[in-house]
Design brief:
Number of helices: 23
Structural class: alpha/beta
Mean pLDDT: 92
Helix content: 40-55%
Largest sheet: 6 strands, antiparallel
Radius of gyration: 23 Å
Shape: globular
Number of strands: 19
Protein backbone atom coordinates (compact mmCIF):
# COMPACT_ATOMS: atom_id res chain seq x y z
CA UNK A 1 0.00 0.00 0.00
CA UNK A 2 1.56 3.28 -1.09
CA UNK A 3 0.96 6.63 0.53
CA UNK A 4 0.75 9.83 -1.51
CA UNK A 5 0.29 13.38 -0.36
CA UNK A 6 0.10 16.64 -2.28
CA UNK A 7 0.70 19.94 -0.54
CA UNK A 8 -0.67 23.25 -1.87
CA UNK A 9 -1.77 21.61 -5.07
CA UNK A 10 -3.80 23.41 -7.70
CA UNK A 11 -4.91 20.02 -9.00
CA UNK A 12 -6.07 17.93 -6.03
CA UNK A 13 -8.33 15.84 -8.23
CA UNK A 14 -5.35 14.47 -10.14
CA UNK A 15 -3.96 12.94 -6.96
CA UNK A 16 -7.11 11.02 -6.12
CA UNK A 17 -7.33 7.37 -6.94
CA UNK A 18 -3.60 6.81 -7.51
CA UNK A 19 -3.52 4.34 -4.64
CA UNK A 20 -6.20 2.00 -3.36
CA UNK A 21 -6.36 3.59 0.07
CA UNK A 22 -8.83 6.17 1.43
CA UNK A 23 -8.05 9.81 0.70
CA UNK A 24 -9.02 13.09 2.32
CA UNK A 25 -8.94 16.55 0.77
CA UNK A 26 -8.51 19.71 2.83
CA UNK A 27 -8.67 22.72 0.58
CA UNK A 28 -5.67 22.40 -1.70
CA UNK A 29 -4.21 19.45 0.21
CA UNK A 30 -4.69 15.76 -0.50
CA UNK A 31 -3.60 12.79 1.59
CA UNK A 32 -4.06 9.20 0.50
CA UNK A 33 -2.86 6.43 2.83
CA UNK A 34 -3.95 3.21 4.45
CA UNK A 35 -4.39 4.99 7.78
CA UNK A 36 -5.32 8.69 7.92
CA UNK A 37 -6.34 10.93 10.79
CA UNK A 38 -8.24 14.18 10.38
CA UNK A 39 -8.93 16.85 12.97
CA UNK A 40 -10.28 20.24 11.97
CA UNK A 41 -7.95 21.58 9.30
CA UNK A 42 -5.28 18.96 9.99
CA UNK A 43 -4.51 15.76 8.09
CA UNK A 44 -1.96 13.23 9.29
CA UNK A 45 -0.62 9.76 8.66
CA UNK A 46 1.96 7.38 10.05
CA UNK A 47 3.42 4.46 8.11
CA UNK A 48 5.36 1.91 10.09
CA UNK A 49 5.56 1.23 13.79
CA UNK A 50 5.82 3.86 16.54
CA UNK A 51 8.05 2.17 19.09
CA UNK A 52 7.22 4.49 22.00
CA UNK A 53 3.46 4.45 21.38
CA UNK A 54 2.63 3.65 25.01
CA UNK A 55 4.69 6.54 26.40
CA UNK A 56 3.26 8.98 23.86
CA UNK A 57 -0.37 8.06 24.50
CA UNK A 58 0.19 8.71 28.19
CA UNK A 59 2.14 11.93 27.61
CA UNK A 60 -0.47 13.24 25.16
CA UNK A 61 -3.46 12.04 27.25
CA UNK A 62 -4.71 9.72 24.50
CA UNK A 63 -6.58 6.44 24.67
CA UNK A 64 -4.63 3.19 24.38
CA UNK A 65 -6.36 2.30 21.11
CA UNK A 66 -5.40 5.59 19.44
CA UNK A 67 -4.06 5.04 15.93
CA UNK A 68 -0.56 6.02 14.87
CA UNK A 69 -1.94 8.79 12.66
CA UNK A 70 -3.92 10.22 15.59
CA UNK A 71 -0.79 10.14 17.76
CA UNK A 72 1.07 12.08 15.07
CA UNK A 73 -1.63 14.78 14.95
CA UNK A 74 -1.65 15.08 18.74
CA UNK A 75 2.15 15.31 18.76
CA UNK A 76 2.03 18.03 16.11
CA UNK A 77 -0.50 20.04 18.13
CA UNK A 78 1.80 19.83 21.17
CA UNK A 79 5.25 20.24 19.60
CA UNK A 80 4.51 21.74 16.17
CA UNK A 81 7.14 20.90 13.54
CA UNK A 82 9.48 19.58 16.24
CA UNK A 83 7.22 16.56 16.87
CA UNK A 84 9.42 14.02 14.96
CA UNK A 85 12.04 14.26 17.73
CA UNK A 86 9.50 12.74 20.09
CA UNK A 87 8.65 9.74 17.89
CA UNK A 88 10.73 6.56 18.00
CA UNK A 89 10.79 3.58 15.68
CA UNK A 90 10.69 2.81 11.97
CA UNK A 91 7.91 5.25 11.12
CA UNK A 92 7.37 7.76 8.31
CA UNK A 93 4.94 10.57 9.17
CA UNK A 94 3.26 13.53 7.53
CA UNK A 95 1.06 16.35 8.80
CA UNK A 96 -0.76 18.73 6.45
CA UNK A 97 -2.05 21.86 8.16
CA UNK A 98 -4.50 23.64 5.84
CA UNK A 99 -5.02 26.63 8.15
CA UNK A 100 -1.28 27.32 8.52
CA UNK A 101 -0.60 26.39 4.86
CA UNK A 102 2.06 23.98 6.09
CA UNK A 103 3.41 20.48 5.58
CA UNK A 104 5.69 18.57 7.96
CA UNK A 105 7.19 15.35 6.62
CA UNK A 106 9.52 13.13 8.64
CA UNK A 107 11.64 10.03 8.10
CA UNK A 108 12.73 7.70 10.87
CA UNK A 109 16.16 8.07 12.45
CA UNK A 110 17.92 5.25 10.61
CA UNK A 111 15.92 5.24 7.38
CA UNK A 112 14.07 1.94 7.59
CA UNK A 113 11.09 3.52 5.79
CA UNK A 114 11.68 5.14 2.36
CA UNK A 115 10.39 8.70 1.81
CA UNK A 116 10.40 10.54 -1.53
CA UNK A 117 9.30 14.01 -2.57
CA UNK A 118 9.16 16.30 -5.60
CA UNK A 119 8.39 19.96 -6.08
CA UNK A 120 6.92 21.70 -9.11
CA UNK A 121 6.27 25.39 -8.66
CA UNK A 122 4.15 25.72 -5.53
CA UNK A 123 3.15 22.05 -5.60
CA UNK A 124 4.95 19.51 -3.42
CA UNK A 125 4.16 15.80 -3.62
CA UNK A 126 5.51 13.10 -1.31
CA UNK A 127 5.18 9.36 -1.03
CA UNK A 128 6.82 6.21 0.26
CA UNK A 129 7.22 5.05 -3.38
CA UNK A 130 8.59 7.03 -6.36
CA UNK A 131 5.99 5.67 -8.79
CA UNK A 132 3.20 7.38 -6.85
CA UNK A 133 4.93 10.72 -7.32
CA UNK A 134 5.22 10.11 -11.07
CA UNK A 135 1.50 9.34 -11.18
CA UNK A 136 0.72 12.60 -9.39
CA UNK A 137 2.17 14.53 -12.33
CA UNK A 138 4.42 16.61 -10.09
CA UNK A 139 7.55 14.87 -11.41
CA UNK A 140 8.46 13.78 -14.92
CA UNK A 141 10.14 10.44 -15.78
CA UNK A 142 13.46 12.01 -16.73
CA UNK A 143 16.99 10.82 -15.94
CA UNK A 144 19.48 13.67 -16.26
CA UNK A 145 23.27 13.74 -15.97
CA UNK A 146 23.19 13.45 -12.18
CA UNK A 147 20.69 10.60 -12.31
CA UNK A 148 22.69 8.63 -14.87
CA UNK A 149 25.75 8.98 -12.66
CA UNK A 150 23.78 7.58 -9.74
CA UNK A 151 22.59 4.60 -11.79
CA UNK A 152 25.89 3.60 -13.33
CA UNK A 153 28.43 5.04 -10.90
CA UNK A 154 26.89 3.95 -7.59
CA UNK A 155 23.90 1.77 -8.50
CA UNK A 156 22.09 0.05 -7.03
CA UNK A 157 23.24 2.26 -4.13
CA UNK A 158 22.55 6.00 -4.26
CA UNK A 159 23.92 9.22 -2.83
CA UNK A 160 21.92 10.15 0.31
CA UNK A 161 18.99 12.33 -0.70
CA UNK A 162 19.25 11.47 -4.41
CA UNK A 163 17.43 9.22 -6.86
CA UNK A 164 18.07 8.54 -10.56
CA UNK A 165 15.14 10.84 -11.40
CA UNK A 166 15.81 14.50 -12.15
CA UNK A 167 12.75 15.66 -10.21
CA UNK A 168 12.42 13.14 -7.35
CA UNK A 169 14.49 13.30 -4.18
CA UNK A 170 14.76 11.12 -1.10
CA UNK A 171 14.35 12.55 2.38
CA UNK A 172 17.43 11.45 4.31
CA UNK A 173 17.14 9.42 7.53
CA UNK A 174 16.69 11.48 10.68
CA UNK A 175 15.44 14.48 8.70
CA UNK A 176 12.25 16.51 8.64
CA UNK A 177 10.97 18.50 5.66
CA UNK A 178 8.92 21.59 6.47
CA UNK A 179 7.01 23.55 3.82
CA UNK A 180 5.19 26.72 4.84
CA UNK A 181 3.60 29.26 2.53
CA UNK A 182 5.59 28.11 -0.48
CA UNK A 183 8.97 27.90 1.28
CA UNK A 184 10.64 24.53 1.89
CA UNK A 185 13.49 23.60 4.21
CA UNK A 186 14.99 20.35 5.47
CA UNK A 187 16.56 19.99 8.90
CA UNK A 188 18.21 17.07 10.65
CA UNK A 189 16.84 15.98 14.01
CA UNK A 190 19.01 12.88 14.48
CA UNK A 191 22.51 11.78 13.49
CA UNK A 192 24.97 9.26 14.89
CA UNK A 193 27.67 10.98 16.93
CA UNK A 194 31.30 10.14 17.62
CA UNK A 195 31.71 9.75 21.39
CA UNK A 196 34.39 8.30 23.67
CA UNK A 197 33.92 4.67 24.74
CA UNK A 198 35.52 3.86 28.08
CA UNK A 199 33.89 0.57 29.08
CA UNK A 200 35.62 -2.80 29.25
CA UNK A 201 34.95 -5.56 26.75
CA UNK A 202 32.91 -7.45 29.34
CA UNK A 203 30.73 -4.45 30.16
CA UNK A 204 30.37 -3.60 26.48
CA UNK A 205 29.21 -7.13 25.68
CA UNK A 206 26.70 -6.96 28.52
CA UNK A 207 25.33 -3.68 27.20
CA UNK A 208 25.08 -4.98 23.65
CA UNK A 209 23.20 -8.04 24.91
CA UNK A 210 20.85 -5.85 26.96
CA UNK A 211 20.11 -3.61 23.97
CA UNK A 212 19.36 -6.61 21.77
CA UNK A 213 17.13 -8.06 24.48
CA UNK A 214 15.24 -4.75 24.66
CA UNK A 215 14.83 -4.57 20.89
CA UNK A 216 13.43 -8.12 20.85
CA UNK A 217 11.14 -7.39 23.82
CA UNK A 218 9.61 -4.50 21.89
CA UNK A 219 8.61 -6.68 18.93
CA UNK A 220 7.61 -9.80 20.87
CA UNK A 221 3.90 -8.74 21.03
CA UNK A 222 3.77 -9.11 17.23
CA UNK A 223 4.63 -12.84 17.53
CA UNK A 224 6.83 -12.65 14.43
CA UNK A 225 8.48 -15.46 12.53
CA UNK A 226 12.22 -15.38 11.80
CA UNK A 227 14.35 -15.47 8.68
CA UNK A 228 17.03 -17.96 9.76
CA UNK A 229 20.14 -18.34 7.60
CA UNK A 230 22.31 -20.15 10.13
CA UNK A 231 24.58 -17.09 10.21
CA UNK A 232 25.43 -15.27 13.41
CA UNK A 233 23.09 -12.29 12.98
CA UNK A 234 19.84 -14.10 12.24
CA UNK A 235 20.54 -17.00 14.61
CA UNK A 236 21.17 -14.69 17.57
CA UNK A 237 17.87 -12.88 16.97
CA UNK A 238 16.00 -16.17 16.52
CA UNK A 239 17.46 -17.49 19.78
CA UNK A 240 16.44 -14.36 21.70
CA UNK A 241 12.95 -14.43 20.20
CA UNK A 242 12.51 -18.12 20.94
CA UNK A 243 13.15 -17.47 24.64
CA UNK A 244 10.18 -15.12 24.68
CA UNK A 245 7.51 -16.73 22.55
CA UNK A 246 8.43 -20.40 22.78
CA UNK A 247 8.55 -22.46 19.63
CA UNK A 248 8.43 -20.11 16.67
CA UNK A 249 8.35 -20.44 12.91
CA UNK A 250 11.58 -19.93 11.01
CA UNK A 251 12.35 -19.85 7.30
CA UNK A 252 15.43 -20.17 5.12
CA UNK A 253 15.95 -19.84 1.37
CA UNK A 254 17.93 -22.07 -0.95
CA UNK A 255 18.04 -22.78 -4.69
CA UNK A 256 17.55 -25.77 -6.95
CA UNK A 257 20.93 -27.42 -7.48
CA UNK A 258 22.67 -25.62 -4.60
CA UNK A 259 24.64 -28.65 -3.45
CA UNK A 260 26.07 -29.26 -6.93
CA UNK A 261 26.48 -25.67 -8.10
CA UNK A 262 27.81 -23.84 -5.03
CA UNK A 263 31.15 -22.10 -5.53
CA UNK A 264 32.89 -20.88 -2.41
CA UNK A 265 34.74 -17.57 -2.51
CA UNK A 266 36.15 -15.08 -0.02
CA UNK A 267 32.75 -13.44 0.35
CA UNK A 268 30.69 -16.61 0.76
CA UNK A 269 32.82 -19.47 2.11
CA UNK A 270 30.08 -22.00 2.96
CA UNK A 271 26.55 -23.03 2.11
CA UNK A 272 23.89 -22.07 4.64
CA UNK A 273 21.88 -25.29 4.72
CA UNK A 274 24.07 -27.32 7.15
CA UNK A 275 24.12 -24.39 9.58
CA UNK A 276 20.38 -23.83 9.25
CA UNK A 277 19.79 -27.47 10.21
CA UNK A 278 22.12 -27.07 13.15
CA UNK A 279 20.28 -23.92 14.31
CA UNK A 280 16.86 -25.56 13.92
CA UNK A 281 17.97 -28.50 16.07
CA UNK A 282 19.48 -26.21 18.71
CA UNK A 283 16.53 -23.82 18.87
CA UNK A 284 13.70 -26.27 18.10
CA UNK A 285 11.94 -23.97 15.63
CA UNK A 286 9.14 -24.95 13.27
CA UNK A 287 11.22 -24.55 10.17
CA UNK A 288 10.43 -24.28 6.47
CA UNK A 289 13.13 -24.64 3.81
CA UNK A 290 12.06 -22.55 0.80
CA UNK A 291 13.61 -23.79 -2.45
CA UNK A 292 13.48 -21.45 -5.43
CA UNK A 293 13.78 -22.49 -9.05
CA UNK A 294 16.14 -20.72 -11.46
CA UNK A 295 13.26 -19.95 -13.84
CA UNK A 296 11.24 -18.31 -11.07
CA UNK A 297 14.27 -16.26 -10.05
CA UNK A 298 14.76 -14.91 -13.57
CA UNK A 299 11.04 -14.41 -14.24
CA UNK A 300 10.70 -12.28 -11.10
CA UNK A 301 13.42 -9.75 -12.05
CA UNK A 302 11.01 -7.17 -13.58
CA UNK A 303 8.55 -7.53 -10.68
CA UNK A 304 11.33 -6.95 -8.14
CA UNK A 305 12.28 -3.71 -9.90
CA UNK A 306 8.61 -2.69 -9.90
CA UNK A 307 8.37 -3.36 -6.17
CA UNK A 308 11.46 -1.30 -5.45
CA UNK A 309 10.63 1.49 -7.88
CA UNK A 310 14.24 1.41 -9.11
CA UNK A 311 16.67 -1.11 -10.58
CA UNK A 312 18.00 -3.08 -7.62
CA UNK A 313 20.17 -6.04 -6.77
CA UNK A 314 18.79 -8.25 -9.55
CA UNK A 315 18.13 -11.83 -8.39
CA UNK A 316 19.32 -10.92 -4.88
CA UNK A 317 16.13 -8.85 -4.81
CA UNK A 318 13.86 -11.24 -6.70
CA UNK A 319 14.87 -14.16 -4.50
CA UNK A 320 13.98 -12.25 -1.32
CA UNK A 321 10.66 -11.24 -2.86
CA UNK A 322 9.80 -14.87 -3.73
CA UNK A 323 11.05 -16.02 -0.33
CA UNK A 324 8.84 -13.43 1.37
CA UNK A 325 5.77 -14.67 -0.48
CA UNK A 326 6.38 -18.13 0.99
CA UNK A 327 6.67 -16.66 4.49
CA UNK A 328 3.45 -14.68 3.97
CA UNK A 329 1.43 -17.91 3.99
CA UNK A 330 2.31 -18.32 7.68
CA UNK A 331 3.24 -14.93 9.11
CA UNK A 332 2.51 -11.21 8.78
CA UNK A 333 5.66 -10.05 10.60
CA UNK A 334 9.14 -11.53 10.29
CA UNK A 335 12.50 -10.78 11.89
CA UNK A 336 15.59 -10.32 9.72
CA UNK A 337 19.27 -10.05 10.63
CA UNK A 338 19.64 -7.20 8.12
CA UNK A 339 22.03 -4.42 9.22
CA UNK A 340 24.00 -6.68 11.58
CA UNK A 341 27.08 -6.60 9.33
CA UNK A 342 26.97 -2.81 9.02
CA UNK A 343 26.55 -2.27 12.75
CA UNK A 344 29.11 -4.79 14.03
CA UNK A 345 31.64 -4.66 11.20
CA UNK A 346 31.08 -7.93 9.35
CA UNK A 347 32.08 -6.92 5.83
CA UNK A 348 35.51 -7.60 4.32
CA UNK A 349 36.23 -3.91 3.87
CA UNK A 350 36.20 -3.44 7.63
CA UNK A 351 39.25 -5.71 7.82
CA UNK A 352 41.38 -3.51 5.57
CA UNK A 353 41.46 0.19 6.38
CA UNK A 354 43.55 0.86 3.26
CA UNK A 355 40.44 0.23 1.12
CA UNK A 356 39.28 3.72 2.10
CA UNK A 357 42.26 5.24 0.28
CA UNK A 358 41.05 3.94 -3.08
CA UNK A 359 39.18 6.04 -5.64
CA UNK A 360 35.83 4.29 -5.21
CA UNK A 361 33.65 2.91 -2.45
CA UNK A 362 34.92 -0.54 -1.42
CA UNK A 363 31.65 -2.17 -2.44
CA UNK A 364 31.42 -0.49 -5.87
CA UNK A 365 33.32 -3.12 -7.82
CA UNK A 366 35.24 -2.24 -10.95
CA UNK A 367 34.75 1.32 -12.18
CA UNK A 368 36.34 0.29 -15.48
CA UNK A 369 33.61 -2.33 -15.92
CA UNK A 370 30.90 0.18 -15.03
CA UNK A 371 32.18 2.60 -17.65
CA UNK A 372 32.67 -0.10 -20.26
CA UNK A 373 28.95 -0.84 -20.66
CA UNK A 374 28.24 2.77 -21.70
CA UNK A 375 28.45 4.27 -25.16
CA UNK A 376 31.72 6.23 -25.59
CA UNK A 377 30.01 9.62 -25.86
CA UNK A 378 27.91 8.87 -22.74
CA UNK A 379 31.03 7.73 -20.91
CA UNK A 380 32.68 11.04 -21.76
CA UNK A 381 29.72 13.04 -20.47
CA UNK A 382 29.28 11.11 -17.23
CA UNK A 383 32.93 10.98 -16.10
CA UNK A 384 31.95 8.26 -13.63
CA UNK A 385 35.34 7.88 -11.98
CA UNK A 386 35.55 11.57 -11.15
CA UNK A 387 31.94 11.61 -9.93
CA UNK A 388 32.50 8.65 -7.62
CA UNK A 389 35.82 10.06 -6.38
CA UNK A 390 34.20 13.43 -5.57
CA UNK A 391 31.22 11.76 -3.88
CA UNK A 392 33.54 9.61 -1.78
CA UNK A 393 35.73 12.55 -0.75
CA UNK A 394 32.72 14.62 0.34
CA UNK A 395 31.36 11.73 2.37
CA UNK A 396 34.73 11.20 4.07
CA UNK A 397 34.87 14.88 5.02
CA UNK A 398 31.36 14.67 6.52
CA UNK A 399 32.03 11.54 8.61
CA UNK A 400 32.10 12.12 12.40
CA UNK A 401 35.41 11.35 14.13
CA UNK A 402 37.09 12.04 17.46
CA UNK A 403 40.41 13.82 17.94
CA UNK A 404 41.39 10.98 20.28
CA UNK A 405 40.86 8.28 17.62
CA UNK A 406 43.94 6.40 16.48
CA UNK A 407 44.61 6.64 12.75
CA UNK A 408 43.20 3.14 12.20
CA UNK A 409 40.15 3.77 14.40
CA UNK A 410 39.42 7.05 12.62
CA UNK A 411 39.71 5.33 9.25
CA UNK A 412 37.44 2.44 10.24
CA UNK A 413 34.94 4.77 11.92
CA UNK A 414 34.81 6.72 8.65
CA UNK A 415 34.40 3.49 6.70
CA UNK A 416 31.45 2.52 8.91
CA UNK A 417 29.87 5.95 8.49
CA UNK A 418 30.08 5.56 4.71
CA UNK A 419 28.60 2.08 4.99
CA UNK A 420 25.67 3.42 7.02
CA UNK A 421 25.01 6.22 4.53
CA UNK A 422 25.62 4.54 1.16
CA UNK A 423 25.57 0.73 1.46
CA UNK A 424 23.07 -0.07 4.19
CA UNK A 425 20.19 2.04 2.75
CA UNK A 426 20.18 -0.09 -0.40
CA UNK A 427 19.75 -3.24 1.71
CA UNK A 428 17.12 -1.61 3.93
CA UNK A 429 15.13 -0.59 0.86
CA UNK A 430 15.49 -4.09 -0.54
CA UNK A 431 14.25 -5.70 2.68
CA UNK A 432 11.25 -3.40 3.07
CA UNK A 433 10.17 -3.44 -0.58
CA UNK A 434 10.53 -7.16 -1.24
CA UNK A 435 8.70 -8.09 1.98
CA UNK A 436 6.10 -5.40 1.42
CA UNK A 437 5.34 -6.86 -2.01
CA UNK A 438 4.43 -10.11 -0.25
CA UNK A 439 2.29 -8.29 2.31
CA UNK A 440 4.56 -8.85 5.30
CA UNK A 441 6.41 -6.45 7.59
CA UNK A 442 10.14 -6.98 8.04
CA UNK A 443 11.57 -6.20 11.48
CA UNK A 444 15.28 -5.40 11.76
CA UNK A 445 16.38 -5.12 15.41
CA UNK A 446 19.99 -4.38 14.45
CA UNK A 447 18.87 -1.05 12.96
CA UNK A 448 17.66 0.16 16.37
CA UNK A 449 19.27 3.62 16.58
CA UNK A 450 20.07 3.19 20.28
CA UNK A 451 22.11 0.08 19.53
CA UNK A 452 23.70 1.68 16.46
CA UNK A 453 24.75 4.79 18.37
CA UNK A 454 26.34 2.66 21.10
CA UNK A 455 28.15 0.22 18.80
CA UNK A 456 29.33 3.01 16.47
CA UNK A 457 31.65 4.17 19.26
CA UNK A 458 33.02 0.79 20.34
CA UNK A 459 36.74 0.74 19.43
CA UNK A 460 37.53 -1.50 16.49
CA UNK A 461 39.89 -3.78 18.37
CA UNK A 462 36.89 -4.54 20.60
CA UNK A 463 34.51 -4.98 17.66
CA UNK A 464 37.07 -7.48 16.33
CA UNK A 465 37.43 -9.12 19.74
CA UNK A 466 39.60 -12.26 19.65
CA UNK A 467 40.56 -11.38 16.08
CA UNK A 468 37.13 -12.27 14.68
CA UNK A 469 34.76 -10.07 12.70
CA UNK A 470 31.79 -9.07 14.89
CA UNK A 471 33.75 -10.35 17.89
CA UNK A 472 31.85 -8.21 20.39
CA UNK A 473 28.52 -9.55 19.13
CA UNK A 474 29.82 -13.11 19.47
CA UNK A 475 30.78 -12.38 23.08
CA UNK A 476 27.39 -10.77 23.74
CA UNK A 477 25.69 -13.91 22.38
CA UNK A 478 27.60 -16.40 24.52
CA UNK A 479 25.27 -19.01 25.99
CA UNK A 480 22.65 -18.51 23.29
CA UNK A 481 24.10 -20.74 20.55
CA UNK A 482 26.26 -23.81 20.07
CA UNK A 483 29.89 -22.85 19.54
CA UNK A 484 29.92 -23.90 15.88
CA UNK A 485 27.13 -21.40 15.17
CA UNK A 486 28.55 -18.74 17.46
CA UNK A 487 31.91 -18.85 15.67
CA UNK A 488 30.70 -19.35 12.08
CA UNK A 489 32.51 -17.05 9.66
CA UNK A 490 30.42 -14.30 8.10
CA UNK A 491 28.48 -15.45 5.03
CA UNK A 492 26.09 -13.11 3.20
CA UNK A 493 22.53 -13.63 1.98
CA UNK A 494 22.64 -16.70 -0.29
CA UNK A 495 22.60 -16.21 -4.05
CA UNK A 496 22.33 -18.80 -6.78
CA UNK A 497 25.50 -20.14 -8.39
CA UNK A 498 23.55 -22.19 -10.93
CA UNK A 499 24.78 -22.31 -14.53
CA UNK A 500 21.10 -22.66 -15.45
CA UNK A 501 20.41 -19.19 -14.06
CA UNK A 502 23.50 -17.82 -15.80
CA UNK A 503 22.24 -19.13 -19.14
CA UNK A 504 18.77 -17.72 -18.53
CA UNK A 505 20.27 -14.28 -17.91
CA UNK A 506 22.52 -14.61 -20.94
CA UNK A 507 19.56 -15.47 -23.19
CA UNK A 508 17.40 -12.65 -21.82
CA UNK A 509 20.24 -10.16 -22.18
CA UNK A 510 20.61 -11.10 -25.83
CA UNK A 511 16.85 -10.73 -26.31
CA UNK A 512 17.12 -7.21 -24.87
CA UNK A 513 20.07 -6.44 -27.15
CA UNK A 514 18.08 -7.59 -30.19
CA UNK A 515 15.25 -5.15 -29.40
CA UNK A 516 16.01 -2.03 -31.43
CA UNK A 517 13.53 -0.05 -29.32
CA UNK A 518 15.04 -0.99 -25.94
CA UNK A 519 15.19 2.33 -24.03
CA UNK A 520 18.50 1.45 -22.37
CA UNK A 521 20.20 1.99 -25.74
CA UNK A 522 20.01 5.69 -24.95
CA UNK A 523 23.12 5.03 -22.85
CA UNK A 524 24.23 1.41 -23.37
CA UNK A 525 27.04 0.19 -25.60
CA UNK A 526 25.40 -2.78 -27.29
CA UNK A 527 28.64 -4.40 -28.51
CA UNK A 528 30.31 -4.11 -25.08
CA UNK A 529 27.38 -5.79 -23.33
CA UNK A 530 27.27 -8.51 -26.00
CA UNK A 531 30.93 -9.29 -25.29
CA UNK A 532 30.19 -9.54 -21.56
CA UNK A 533 27.19 -11.78 -22.24
CA UNK A 534 29.44 -14.07 -24.29
CA UNK A 535 32.00 -14.36 -21.48
CA UNK A 536 32.21 -17.05 -18.79
CA UNK A 537 30.08 -15.01 -16.30
CA UNK A 538 31.59 -16.75 -13.29
CA UNK A 539 29.14 -16.32 -10.39
CA UNK A 540 32.02 -16.53 -7.91
CA UNK A 541 33.44 -13.23 -9.17
CA UNK A 542 32.18 -9.92 -7.76
CA UNK A 543 32.81 -7.17 -10.31
CA UNK A 544 29.72 -4.95 -10.00
CA UNK A 545 28.48 -4.32 -6.46
CA UNK A 546 28.92 -5.57 -2.91
CA UNK A 547 29.60 -9.23 -2.21
CA UNK A 548 26.86 -10.79 -4.33
CA UNK A 549 26.46 -9.00 -7.66
CA UNK A 550 28.81 -10.84 -10.00
CA UNK A 551 28.62 -11.28 -13.80
CA UNK A 552 25.08 -12.74 -14.03
CA UNK A 553 23.76 -10.17 -11.56
CA UNK A 554 25.43 -7.35 -13.49
CA UNK A 555 23.61 -8.33 -16.67
CA UNK A 556 20.38 -8.80 -14.72
CA UNK A 557 20.83 -5.27 -13.29
CA UNK A 558 21.08 -3.88 -16.83
CA UNK A 559 17.91 -5.75 -17.77
CA UNK A 560 16.19 -4.24 -14.74
CA UNK A 561 17.32 -0.78 -15.86
CA UNK A 562 15.78 -1.43 -19.27
CA UNK A 563 12.51 -2.77 -17.82
CA UNK A 564 12.34 0.17 -15.41
CA UNK A 565 12.83 2.66 -18.24
CA UNK A 566 10.32 0.96 -20.52
CA UNK A 567 7.55 0.70 -17.92
CA UNK A 568 7.79 4.40 -17.02
CA UNK A 569 8.64 5.75 -20.48
CA UNK A 570 11.79 7.29 -19.04
CA UNK A 571 13.67 9.87 -21.08
CA UNK A 572 17.40 10.40 -20.75
CA UNK A 573 18.34 14.07 -20.96
CA UNK A 574 22.07 14.61 -20.53
Amino acid sequence: MNMIGVYHSEYPEKSRGICDAPHIVKGKMVLCAEEIASAGTLLGCAMGRIRNRRELTKQLSLKNNTTGAEIVLAAYRKWDEDYPRHLEGAVFTAVLDAEADALVLSRDRIGDRPVFYAQKGDILAFSDHPDAILLSGVAEPVVDLAGARELFGLGPARTPGKTPYRDIFSLEPGCVLVARAGEMRITRYFALEARPHEESADQTAENVRAMLERAIDEITPLHPSAMLSGGLDSTVLTALLKRRIGRLRSFSVQYEGDAEDFQANRFRPTLDTPYVRMAVRALNTKHVFVTLSQDALADALPTAAEARGFPGMADVDSSLMLFSHEIAAFSRDTVSGECGDEVFGGYPWFRDATMLSQDAFPWSGSMDLRESVLRPEIREKLQLKQFVRDTLNRAVEEAPTLASDTAENACLRTMQSLCFRFFMPNLQERAVRMCEHAGINVLTPYSDERLMQYVFNIPWDMKFLDGREKGILRKAAEGLLPEELLLRKKSPYPKTCSPVYTELVRLRTRAMLSDAKAPIFQVLDKDAVERIAASALNPADAPWFGQLMAGPQMLAFLMQVNDWMKARKIRVEL
